[in-house]
Design goal:
Number of strands: 2
Distance between the termini: 13 Å
Order of helices and strands: HEHEHH
Shape: globular
Structural class: mainly alpha
Length: 110
């Protein structure tokens, strides 16, 4: 019985070990890993640091990433985040809008 379309656990740990552990846990607990949108915090760390848990979640089958808070990103950090998502094209919108839009567009909802 599908009660929700997706879940978005907020794993804002600044510890790379704990971030990877949280990603593994949230995917292991989900009957549909593709319905998990892994939340990373970039307000308290760099995108490079936050990517540890994000990459782990994506490798385990998570359906996408959610970033908090987009308004804390510099242009170079936003570029790192786009590279993590695999976007090779320039953003047609301001950084905040384009990154948020990409999460929704690429999330495979049932």
């Amino acid at each position: 019985l599908d009660l929700v379309d997706f879940v978005c656990p907020m794993a804002y740990s600044t510890s790379p070990t704990r971030a990877a552990e949280l990603a593994r846990l949230e995917i292991a607990e989900s009957p549909r890993p593709e319905s998990v949108v892994h939340g990373i915090g970039v307000y308290n760390q760099t995108v490079a640091s936050a990517s540890t848990g994000a990459l782990e979640a994506l490798e385990l089958g998570a359906g996408g990433l959610c970033v908090f808070s987009l308004n804390t990103l510099t242009d170079s950090q936003a570029g790192l985040l786009r590279a993590l998502w695999g976007s090779g094209s320039p953003a047609p919108h301001p950084v905040e809008t384009s990154l948020l839009h990409q999460v929704w567009v690429e999330l495979p909802l049932p």
